[in-house]
Structure formats: structure tokens, C-alpha cells
Description:
- The chain is of the alpha+beta class.
- Helices cover 62% and strands 8% of the residues.
- A six-stranded antiparallel beta sheet has the order 10-9-8-11-7-12, with helices on both faces. A five-stranded antiparallel beta sheet has the order 2-3-1-5-4, with helices on both faces. A two-stranded parallel sheet has the order 6-13.
Amino acid sequence: MERLGRMLVRRRKAVLIATLVFVLGAAMIGGGVISRLRSGGFADPGSESAEAVELLQDRYGDASPNLVVLVTTTGARSVDDPAIEAVAAELANVMTDAGVVDVASYWSLGHAPPLRNDDGTRALLLGTIIGTDDEVQDTIRSLSPTLTRETDVAVVSIGGFAEVYRQMSETIEHDLVRAELIAFPITLVLLLFVFRGVIAAVLPLAVGVIAIFGALLALFLISLGTDVSIFALNLTTAMGLGLAIDYSLFIVSRFREELAAGKSVEDATVRTVQTAGKTVVFSAITVALSLAALLVFPMYFLRSFAYAGVAVALVAALGAVVSLPALLAVLGHRVDTLPIGRRRPTPVGSGVWHRVAMFVMRRPIPIATIAIVLLLVLGVPFLGIVFGQVDDRSLPSGTSSREVHEILRSEFGSNEAGAVQIALPTVDTDTDADAIDAYAIALSSIDGVGRVDAVTGIYIGGQQVLPPGQATARFPSGNEGTWLSVVPDVVPLSPAGEAVVDEIRSTRAPGTALVGGMTAQFVDSKDALVSRFPIAVAWIALSTFVLLFMMFGSVLVPVKALVINVLSLSATFGALVWIFQEGHLADTLGFTPTGTTDMTMPILMFCVAFGLSMDYEVFLLSRIKEEHDRGTSNRESVALGLERTGRIVTAAAVIISVIFMAFATSGVTSIKLFGIGLTIAVLMDAFVIRATLVPAFMVLAGNANWWAPKWMKRIYDRFGISEGESEPPPAPATDKELVPR
């Protein structure tokens, strides 16, 4: 790192020119990534439900209905009025012309009762938009405004999950623009307050630009070979700016500290890269390794966050360790140009965070006990987590598709849009008709099933209610197989809906049966997440342990960091279950509780929050280790380490929490949960974990903090990363001198 620092000083102008060229090139190329990003990626592509969807589309040109058109009569008309039927016929033609398949309605199916409400004022048309997630989005985007209308005889509203996800995507896009407009000005004000100078405050934003455009370039290159979710842009912006601020705070603060100690600009730059630069590199690697754990999951929605997170962490570190020191070498003492107020440097061994450290280290056991009890109490609700998936209730109240689905739940006896499809590719409908009939009867007898539609007829409650006819003409016949539609009378994305899928899969079928549909996809995706989560956790734990050991040469320090961070995150998740799943702050935060927690969010938040927690852990421990290597006592090292980094960590935490909290203004519940959850995690880590548990445990462990078995010490001595030759302390104090009498 010292050689890197001296090279940056010598070639600072060339480095800055190269940085400018990189940013311009990344902006030109990476800016085109948006057109390559996709809107789906929530399903396990190797699951049974995915195989069922592929078979249904390829062989039968069919899939789960994802478009629901609700026709509401005006005046005293009934849905059986010829004028209403004429409107329905026109709507069906529009849907068919747009490429919607399997268009069926209350009217086309012979006035089928399940597709009409009890008082006869509303009825439904159903259809399926087939294709990739992006193709479905393109179709519904143009079709929805064409179908939506209000005439003298009827009001037509659009629902179905194609429309729900369209409105959700558009809401998120608008919310993110608003979030950025909120977060950026506040962030700049906070940076001015922290740095007390305009020039110094702008530097983190410059690194943020490098990180964001560099990550966009990486995403563009990755999208050339695999699918990347458009939601990865959210993390790119938030993490790019947040990590740039974290790393820049550490670099600029150390540079100012070295200048204040009397070093020349060149020597201050070299020492900054040698110490803070090494810390930033290791910090970025810990963040990247944590987010890389998302690659073990098969859904490209989660994998895309790994692509974005790893890229933005590494590029932010590159900007902070290479470009920023070169700029500091050019600026020199002018980094304090355009000051705001006065910076009053506190003498070594004083300040708020030094006093906090000493207070904790005088009473480590009771303070650690109180902190741990607090975290455990906050984490208790997490034991009752129930996983779900986003649906229309995640949208703001008043959204048209949500209103349609609320009407479906309250006025219709079955959930047509949540139908389960069962592909029977090996049956012959001519010779296996009796077996199909018996299978449909068994399926219709399952609790939670409202109706079964098959080539052999329509079944309700264990018996056939309609023979084959117009209503069953959509099902193929012959020796190429067929499929069945199982319409539930429970909420599809709920524990009851999951139970229906489990019962369907345990029911004996005539030949091979592949179960698909929205609920089956949810069940398979949850199984994939649950089965692979231990692998992700093991990867994070092992890689973090190895990295921290190679940096600090200790066994206890990595183990302590892992345990404390898991404890902190469990408390965060417990708070989120209490807030969002149980709905205790629903009115205050403006969302509708569903009794479940989106299954992808805890996993995504775990990896992001764990990475950020280790980010702050490395900042603090590196400074403690630096003081320890200079010969200071364990207690003094902890106090000075917290004194030197406490303000930086808390300032970084407050600023990045502002960025995350801006996401909480979103009208979509899952994005709101993401923003509030990461805000809680970051603030709890900075103000509870770093201020209490870390110094308490460090002082209790004493010299054991830096212990390792001899065979591990030999590994560290050969392969470990050290600061190089440490500068001696001006006057190391003893533990007794640091403890007030």
C-alpha cells in the first residue's frame, strides 16, 4: 500500500485524467444498461412450476390467467343486459387482437356463476398474456389504457397480476426519483456539517459518481451474458453513494489527521493510503463477499443484487483508494478551502467517543448484558415470521388494480387470477377420460379449492356440476396430453394457498403431473430460498472469518464480529416483523399489513446489512489494531480506536440511513420495508453495537483479542496483511492512567 501511495503522489495528474476518461466511458456505455434490464426473475427456473409453465406455453399455448377485466354496470342494469354483453364482446375482441390467449368471460362461458358477483352488477373477463416477463409488461402497458373505460352502461377496470406488477414497477420508478430528490440534498447538507467545508464535502459525491457509473458499466457487461433485474439499479444508486461516503469519510479524515500531525502533503497522502486505504480495501471486500452470497440462489432477481453490490463495492473502493488520494495530493491543504464554521480538533485521549469507550469499559458486563437483552427482546417477533410474496396489497390504497382485487376478494367466491395449472403431458384424453374425471373429483374435494375445470367437465365439492361443453373447450384433447385448472377459494399467496398446492401435489394423478401457477411458483421459490440459505450463511461466515483473520491475525475478533452482527440483524428482523407483518405501525407508515413478510427481502437485507455491519467493524478494528501494534495497551487501543472512528462511523451511518430512509417514502410496501429495515440495521449497528458491545467485549477479552493457535499464527505471519512499519505513539499511557479515579 505504501508503494501505491507513492505512485499516486508521483502520477496524481495522470491518475485523475484516467479517472475522468473512465467515468465518461462508463457513463456512455453503462447508461445503455437500462434497456437491457429485465423486470422478472422471482421464480426458480429449475423448479416444477417453471417446467409446468414452459410446457403449458410451448405445447398448449396456455398459462395461468394474468389479466382480469372487471365490468361493473351502471344504473340498475344487470350483467345479463344485452348492452353489457355487447361491451364484453368488444373487450374480448380487443384482448384477442392484442395477443391475449384463452380469453374467457362470464358471457362466453354460458353465464358461468363463478364469474359474476352475487347481486349481478359485476362480471369478469379472463385472459393470459404469454411470453417473457418483459413481453408481458410491454403488452399490458399498451393494453391496459385501451381496456380501461367508463361508458353510459359500464365501468371497466383492469386487474390480474400482469397489471399489478405493471403498476408496481411504475410506482417504484416514480418513488425512486422522489427518493433521490429527497436524499441527495439532505446528504449534501450532512456532508457539509460533517466536513465543515465545501471542498471536502464534495469529494464523497465525486467518488459516488465513480462508483455508480462504474457499477452501471459492470451491469451492462454482465447483461450481455445473463439476465439482470431492473431492480438492481436501486441498490446501485443507494450503495454506490452510501459506500462512497463511507470510504471517503475514512480517507479524507485520515488525510486531515496526518496533515494536522505536521506531515507534508505527500507524506500525508502516502500514510493515508497505507492505513485508511488498506482498511477501505478490506472493507469493500467484506461487503462484496457478503453480497456475493446472493449468487447461490437460482432467481436472477436476487443474483442481480449480487452483481450490482459486488461491482459497486469494488468500484467505490477503487475510487476511494486510487482516485481520491490522487485528488487529495493535488488539493493538499486546500481540502479545507471554503470552510463552514470552525473545526475544533480535540486532543488525543478526549472527545465524546473516548468518554463513551471509557464509560463502557469501566462497566463492561452490565452494559453488554443490557445491550444483549435489548437485542434479544427486539428479535423475539422474528420467531413468528411467515413468508409471503408481494401482491396487490403492496400497492398504495386507491391504485386501480388493487381496487379490482379487493372487489374480487370481497364479492367473488373464487380467485380466478390465482388458479393453479396442472399439466398432464402423458395422458390420452380418449382412453384416460375416467382417470381424469376421478382426478378432477379428488382435486375438487381439497379444502381451499373452489372449482376444478378440465376437459371432462367442471367440478365443485367432489362432484361434476357441468359436463364437457363450451366452458371446457379450451382444454386440449387427444394423445398429446391435457391440463386442468384448479381455482382456489382462499387467498393464493397465503399459507392456505400453499396448503392447497401441497395437497394437489400429494394427490395421485393419471400419469405425470406438473403443478404450475402463481402459488406453486411461490412454494417452489420459497423451497429454493430456504434450502440454499444455509449455504449463503456458511459462505458469509467462512469468508468473513478468513478475511478478518488475515487482516488482524486473531481468532476471537472474527468470531466475536460474526456473533454480534447476527445478533444485531436478528433484532432488526424482529422489529420488521413487528412493524410490517403484524402491522403495528401500518397507519403511521401508510401500508396494508398482510400477515406475511416478502420472502426475498429478509435474505436480501441480511446480505446487504451484514456487509455494511462488517464495513463499520473493519473501520473500528483496524484503528484499534493499529494502536495496539504501536505498543499501546489493550484498553487504550480500544478507547483511541473508538475515539478516532466513532465520529466517522456514526456520521457515515446517519448519512447512509438518510439514503435508505428515502426509500421508505415509497408507496410499495416491500420497498418501504427495505428502506426502513436497512435504516434500523445501520443505526443500531453504529450506535448500539459499535458504542457498547464492541468495546465491552474487547476489554473483557483483553490480550486474548489478538490470540490465535501457533499454526494459524504461522499462516498469518506468512500470508497476513499488516500495515507495515508502525509509527511509535507519542506517549503511550497505561490502562490505569486512562481510568478516571
